[in-house]
Inverse folding.
């Protein structure tokens, strides 16, 4: 079902299954729904990255804190999700964009995290290392990943070792 949803043709529809899979439970003082909190902020940030052709890999995990997310390296943050922080971690001059930003529930856990690159022979020739990193993350851990290509502004999603290539910016 998740993978069928990923096959949607519009960018907004493509992120819907990631939002549902993430299913973040965040409490706020003014009783905002969890959808309007982290997922809306994350969606807005992905759209901004897409429009500005900025590279990014964002790995999402919705489970328990004590689960091994399969990454090495990077800088451990373990801080509440914040759009400004996420944006600064993904600035063009940031070294963190060479790895993944790991978000677990409502927290940014790590920046610049390294995952094994996928060695899948089913990927098209010329698949970027960033896409292989995102796919590799889903092969070693129960995570989903969003990949934004700085080259052409496309967004792809990965889950359980499968990749749905994104839509182009005209869509």
């Amino acid at each position: 079902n998740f993978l069928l949803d990923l096959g949607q043709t519009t960018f907004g529809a493509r992120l819907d299954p990631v939002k549902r899979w993430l299913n973040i439970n965040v409490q706020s003082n003014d009783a905002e729904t969890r959808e309007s909190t982290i997922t809306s902020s994350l969606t807005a940030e992905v759209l901004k990255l897409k429009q500005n052709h900025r590279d990014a890999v964002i790995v999402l995990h919705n489970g328990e804190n004590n689960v091994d997310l399969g990454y090495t390296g990077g800088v451990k943050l373990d801080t509440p999700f914040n759009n400004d922080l996420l944006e600064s971690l993904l600035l063009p001059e940031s070294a963190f964009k060479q790895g993944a930003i790991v978000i677990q529930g409502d927290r940014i856990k790590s920046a610049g995290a390294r995952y094994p690159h996928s060695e899948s022979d089913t990927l098209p020739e010329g698949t970027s290392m960033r896409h292989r990193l995102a796919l590799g993350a889903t092969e070693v851990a129960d995570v989903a990943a969003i990949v934004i290509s700085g080259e052409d502004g496309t967004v792809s999603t990965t889950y359980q070792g499968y990749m749905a290539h994104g839509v182009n910016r005209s869509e």
